[in-house]
Amino acid sequence: MRGSTPMTSRRDALVVATRVMQEVVALGNRHGPHGRGTVGYVSVFPNSRNVIPGEVRFSIDLRNASAERVDRMDAEIRAFVEQAEHESRLAIELAQVAHYPPCPFDPGCVASVERAAAELGYTHMRATSGAGHDAVYLARVAPTAMIFVPCKAGLSHNELEDADPAHLEAGANVLLHCMLEKAVVVRA
Questions:
Q1: How many CA atoms lie less than 13 Å away from 79 in the CB half-sphere?
Q2: Residue 163, domain extent
Q3: Which of 35, 48, 86, 117 fits 124 for a cystine, CB–CB 3.0-4.6 Å?
Q4: Per the domain annotation, does 95 fall within a domain?
Q5: 33 preceded by a cis bond (ω within 30 of 0)
Q6: Considering only CA atoms, which of 151, 172, 147 is closest in space to residue 160?
């Protein structure tokens, strides 16, 4: 359909897609404090300034601290999509591309990190990371935790990420103390 099509006769896929996109963000906010809802990829067809979009493809990334919370978010977005499909009379296809369940870390390792930071006099806090780190896979075979250090301007997981050398040293010292705590000494 062309841009000259009367508003009452339009079947605009982008209008419906933006409603769903806004709901993704709303889901992240409703399911706080660890809820995350992101639309990071959007493709509009035919992507012309005077043609009503006939197809929109976009990604939905839902995250939370527990599998149960992610499942609730998933059920809510599916229900919203079903309602949007019914109201708009446009076909909406929702396909799961990947699923990575949240990974709680070993309580003993987490406590070790906290003890080391406290013993060294560093300020510290527990943080929930929603990013996919290698530690998630390591946690499947060994007790695991992570140590984060501040990044300049809070920017991480980006090519512009930068950390103060003193913060990196502090993180390495925490790791060293954790390793020494877990070390086993065997003497003959």
A1: 7
A2: 107-182
A3: 117
A4: no
A5: yes
A6: 151
Rg value, the chain, Cα: 23
Residue type, position 122, single letter? Y
pLDDT in tens, 81-139: 999 999 999 999 999 998 888 888 899 999 999 999 999 999 999 887 777 788 888 98
82 shares its domain with 35: yes
8 A C-beta contact, residue 80 and residue 138: no
- What separation in angstroms does the CA of 2 have from each of 8, 19, 32, 50, 52? 13, 22, 41, 6, 6
Distance, CA of 133 to CA of 100 (rounded, Å): 11
Which of 12, 6, 2, 9 shows the shortest CA–CA distance to 55?
12
Structure tokens at 116: 């080391």
**The tokens of 44 are what?**
């509009």
Q: Report residue 182 as tokens.
A: 């877990």
Q: How far apart are the first and last CA of the chain?
A: 83
pTM for this entry: 0.76
CA distance 25 to 60: 10
